[in-house]
Design goal:
A three-stranded antiparallel β-sheet has the order 2-1-3, covered by helices on one side. It has one domain. By secondary structure, the protein is an alpha+beta fold. Helices cover 16% and strands 54% of the residues. The radius of gyration is 17 Å and the shape is elongated.
Length: 76
């Protein structure tokens, strides 16, 4: 039985460094942007993330794309 996947949802997550704790560990804060068009390319998402970063006071650490899929079989 062959399976296929159908993209359901895309999320853009920006991870920012907010400082360090008392033990010297870096503290991170996530900002999630939902309802991203699943057909958006990596270049488009990167450009948006860079534009958002310029509006922030925190240092951008990472840019993540999270896709959710529905898996289904072909019915065999």
């Amino acid at each position: 039985m062959a399976a296929y996947q159908d993209i359901q949802d895309t999320q853009l997550r920006l991870v920012f460094e907010t400082g360090v704790d008392e033990k010297g560990k870096v503290i991170y804060k996530n900002k999630n942007y939902n309802n991203i068009n699943p057909s958006a390319t990596a270049d488009q998402l990167y450009s948006v993330a860079v534009a958002i970063e310029k509006l922030q006071s925190l240092q951008l650490f990472n840019i993540e794309r999270n896709d959710s899929y529905m898996l289904a079989g072909d019915g065999e």
